[in-house]
């Protein structure tokens, strides 16, 4: 669809849609730019207050992935009449509470009738034009650091199918999804990392591919180093696979090479969609220890999952 649109040429547009980045950036003065994003999706959990929090975190995350700070937001609500108004009130309250935690003001919104409930936020923030972190500057030999565990789609699909899951998985998945990426963003800006993105609908593979394509490099990751929510791999073995997997596999599988030792459940995991996922950070070797110290200071769990390479640009090699 975007290929049919004319390219916008304006020197004030510092980041547009040409590299499939997380947000757009428009310079308004020497030391200030606007960073803007929008996201909307169907509920991943039946509890409206928690879904509101998750949706807010997910939308705010695109601003954090660029190294910006959110300021204003607008609700976008896909209304379905079979749901009571109180359900939507609780959802909006959850979003507002999470926005407040992020020092962001929700100042309005828009509602439309939808075949299923949809919700998200359009978010506007500020960013220093000299400190923008895009997905297009990953460098060979950079380490790849991921700040949240994978497996949210598998968890959500198990809930949808009323598959019994452990309390441990439920609590860990919710905690992950309602945790803002603000502190991780603050750390990576101070460190001055090469590139970053957040892991959401396109899954780990999709968002990593967008990074290496924009940066004209390759990547190698090790599945044994991936952070995974408890019990998720067992659920995959039992056949619990969400719709996002198929979409992402058809879109990105041609850019992935698996070593033969990689187990099937990991192949499914890395193509599965995530919601309010962590930041995927590409950091030079000489700055890795500083990034780790900063993440540890805020008690942010992280995993070093691989490296950026010169070889096979645009291809992700997946090792055991």
Describe the 3D structure.
With 320 residues, the protein is an alpha+beta fold. The protein folds into two domains: 130 residues, 60s Ribosomal Protein L30, Chain: A, CATH 3.30.1330; 177 residues, PurM-like C-terminal domain (Phosphoribosyl-aminoimidazole Synthetase, Chain A, domain 2). It is 36% helix and 25% strand. The chain contains ten helices and 13 strands. It has a seven-stranded mixed beta sheet with strand order 8-11-7-12-9-13-10. It has a six-stranded mixed beta sheet with strand order 1-2-3-6-4-5, with helices on one face. Strand 2 and strand 3 form a beta hairpin. Helix 1 runs parallel beside helix 2 and helix 6 packs parallel to helix 8. 46% of the residues are buried. The model has no long low-confidence stretch (mean pLDDT 96).
CATH class of the largest domain: Alpha Beta
What would CATH call the homologous superfamily of the largest domain?
Answer: PurM-like C-terminal domain
Taken as a percent bin, the fraction of beta residues is: 25-35%
If helices are DSSP runs of H or I spanning 4 or more residues, what is the number of helices?
10
Distance between the termini: 36 Å
Strand order of the largest sheet: 8-11-7-12-9-13-10
Q: What is the CA-atom radius of gyration, in angstroms?
A: 19 Å
Number of strands: 13
Total separate domains: 2
> What is the overall silhouette?
globular
CATH topology of the largest domain, what is it called?
Answer: Phosphoribosyl-aminoimidazole Synthetase, Chain A, domain 2
CATH architecture of the largest domain: Alpha-Beta Complex
Q: Round the mean pLDDT to the nearest integer and report it.
A: 96
Spans of at least 5 consecutive residues with low confidence? none
What class would the helix/strand composition place it in? alpha+beta
Note the quaternary state here: single chain
The residue fraction in helices comes out at 25-40%
Please provide the ordered H/E string of secondary-structure elements: EEEHEHEEEHHHEHEHHEHEHEE
Largest sheet: 7 strands, mixed
